[in-house]
Design brief:
54% of the residues lie in helices and 0% in strands. It has 13 helices and no strands. The structure holds iron/sulfur cluster (SF4). The site of iron/sulfur cluster (SF4) has 15 residues, from α9 and α12.
Length: 261
């Protein structure tokens, strides 16, 4: 039994490695606009949460143009900051939360920065981030991966959907174990590639409701390759109008819940 489990996991590790290589060839590991500085990245993600449009990009640039350092943001009046980020939505929640984080960093490090995390191990840095107000596991892992170069695997809705369709994880994994489960089958050196290209793939072909399996470079190794045809999707390579290809949130069986952010 134990040997079967080990073999199953090894085969999933091999499949994820192969998928990461194929996706890299197809998409070239695109940059999704993430930031080099860990605190920039953290604020950028917090601004983007619960937002269905891309105004947070503009809002982030506005904040950076208004205040050259995060110390300045902490010193500015709360209502000034709230007005600055208004277009990102939920400014009444995001403003106090971000300022509470900046305040905590000032208290912990004597300066409004996440630079000290560079000297911490993966676990300690992740624990520190998870202790900040409003920071969940996916956000913490994004900061670790994108800005601190750690070999962790943030799991967003695209990564999770693809992992399940590829059979890398089993049905019924509780939300609390999503990250640990997937990191068990995606090798450390494949995690960045798998993450950034899964996002690209989830937006282009492995769509929530009508995956375009007929066009998919992963179809030979994907156990869900009939999903597109079964759902009338792109198994025959038909192109659909953009508006119809987008799935309404909540109807995608492979959607990851928002609380993981
Ligand atoms: S074959 Fe279909 S379900 Fe599988 S990864 Fe490709 S698009 Fe997604």
């Amino acid at each position: 039994m134990a040997a079967q489990r080990t073999n199953g996991r090894l085969s999933r590790v091999r499949r994820s490695h192969r998928a990461a290589a194929i996706l890299h060839d197809a998409y070239g590991s695109p940059h999704h606009g993430n930031k080099e500085d860990p605190l920039d990245e953290l604020v950028f993600i917090l601004l983007s949460q619960m937002t269905t449009h891309h105004s947070f990009n503009r809002v982030f640039e506005r904040v950076k143009a208004f205040a050259t350092t995060w110390d300045e943001v902490l010193r500015m009046r709360a209502r000034t900051f709230k007005a600055l980020i208004k277009d990102a939505g939920l400014s009444g929640q995001k403003g106090p939360r971000i300022r509470a984080i900046l305040s905590r960093l000032q208290a912990d490090f004597g300066s409004v920065t996440l630079e000290p995390l560079k000297a911490m191990g993966d676990g300690a840095a992740e624990d520190y981030l998870l202790g900040l107000p409003g920071v969940g596991i996916k956000t913490a892992k994004c900061v670790l991966m994108y800005s601190l170069g750690r070999q962790v695997l943030p799991v967003d809705t695209h990564v999770w959907r693809l992992a399940r369709r590829l059979g890398l994880v089993e049905e019924g994994v509780p939300y609390s174990r999503v990250h640990g489960t997937l990191e068990m089958v995606v090798a450390p050196e494949d995690r960045y590639t798998f993450h950034v290209n899964a996002i690209a793939h989830g937006r282009a072909l492995c769509l929530p409701l009508r995956p375009r399996c007929g066009l998919c470079p992963l179809r030979r190794l994907c156990p869900s390759r009939d999903l597109g045809s079964a759902r009338g999707g792109g198994a025959k390579g038909r192109r659909r109008p953009r508006a119809r290809a987008r799935a309404p949130r909540g109807r995608d069986p492979h959607m990851l819940p928002a609380q993981l952010h």
